[in-house]
Amino acid sequence: MSDLVCVGAIGGSFGVHGEVRLKSFCADPESVASYGPLTTEDGQQSFTLTLNRAIKNGFAAKLDGVLTKEQADALKGVRLYAPRDRLPDLPDDEFYHADLIGLTVRDTGGTELGRVKAVQNNGADDLLEVQIPGGSQTFFLPFTRACVPTVDLAGGRIVADPPDGLI
Predict the structure, then answer these.
(1) Backbone dihedral region for residue 114 (phi beyond 0: left; psi -120 to 50: alpha; all else: beta)
(2) Whose CA, among 50, 87, 91, 164, lies 20 to 30 Å from 79?
(3) Which sign does the torsion angle of CA 86, 22, 117, 147 carry?
(4) Which residues, including other chains, have CB under 8 Å from residue 15's CB and lie 6 or more apart?
């Protein structure tokens, strides 16, 4: 499990006074500000975050040290991370996406199907993008109890029961 969890991303500048467009990846979107200071993935930059107001698809936010539109634009696409110990504990049936990435996926018979490459969400349910062993091909596995009856973080594995014809 990673020590850092991605909690948001900067979408560029908002206005001319150094505000940024911020997309929160938190279940409670406003809580992103309470996990700070937030860092970049490489840890080279750290920001204290202030949410100013809600805007379409996120927030207008102020980052300390960012004073101009040009500085805000330079941060477009930067993902913001919080240390895991600042995040709330989750119930037994919920997981941080960062914990699922890299887990081995096996079917109910024990055959390896691949490794979780990414977790996607297109609205309804999360989808696990699973990379097939020995190749670059992937398939999407619905992250539901029916398709994924067991997630064993300690064992580094997921037991899947994919629908017929999926793979």
Answers:
(1) left
(2) 91
(3) positive
(4) 60, 69
Beta-carbon contacts of residue 61 (< 8 Å; ≥ 6 apart): 14, 19, 20, 21, 22, 33, 49, 50, 51, 52
Q: Is residue 123 pLDDT above 80, yes or no?
A: no
The single-letter DSSP state of residue 36 is P
What amino acid occupies position 144? T
Q: Which residue has the tokens 């995040």?
A: 87
**What's the burial of 8, exposed, middle or buried (CB within 10 Å: 0-12/13-18/19+)?**
buried
Q: Which part of the chain has CATH 2.30.30.240?
A: 97-160
Topology of domain 4-86, CATH: Elongation Factor Tu (Ef-tu); domain 3 (2.40.30)
Does residue 100 have a pLDDT over 60?
Answer: yes
To the nearest whole percent, how much of the chain has pLDDT over 70? 98
Given the candidates 2.30.30.240, 1.20.810.10, 1.10.287.610, 2.40.10.330, the CATH classification of the domain at 97-160 is 2.30.30.240
